[in-house]
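FORM 7B: Structural annotation worksheet

SECTION A. Query
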Amino acid sequence: MFKKYIKYLSSFIIGTGVLFSLNLVVQATQDKAAPEKVKITPADKEKAVVKIGDKTITVGELETKLNNIVPFVRKRYVSNEGKREYMEQLVNQEVLAMEANAQEFDKKESVKNAVRTTMIYRQKKLAVNNRVKKENITEKGIKNYYDKHINEYQRPERRRVNILVVKDKKKADELKKEITAKKLNLRTFHKLVKKHSIDEKSKKRAGMLQFFDKNSKNIEKSIIAQPFIMKNTGDIAGPVKTSKGFTLIRLSGISPAVN
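SECTION B. Predicted structure
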């Protein structure tokens, strides 16, 4: 594949010579944690480093590419060998792109969708960057946001359970005995809920309730008390008397306190 482009690569040898003669070195000293960004004169930015086909990579473009690399990775390209390696990577990318165009990959629907997805991501990022400026974010604004969203930063321990509700205690005891004896997993518990539970609301979610803490108002107190006594997910409690019948409670999740 590369043979058809080989006639264009002679300029690469000249280009890398230009690169080194201009001393486009990512500065790195032992007393600095990360290499400094490349800095060159405006006149040098227009000079060609390498030409592959109709594509020319200038010194300015190379400067931008190098400076967009995170400092930790940029250290790899401090030496002349490192810069040559980086240039070879760029050349390979351009050659592969030319071959892809020659095979009309750009007309394939999957490629168009990938480009569309990238464009959407870029547009969203641009919209956010234009709307939110770092200098406009004040200490007061940060504190106000924190105070309004305190539940995201400070909350008590929470638990999550699956419940199975039946009409009478005898039936509940039988089901608990079956579950405990066979050490049934969550999936099997889901099947029992769908088969036996009379609580239609929780039954649609295989008995799953939302996370709650000890002071939650939207969960019955008789249910809340049990999960915080249980130690391990998979433990079974009950049956307890609730407004809808006799309820078996399976601990399915523990969310630690956040502060």
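SECTION C. Observations
The first strand starts at residue 48 and ends at 52. The longest helix spans residues 80-102.

SECTION D. Sign-off
Analyst initials: ____
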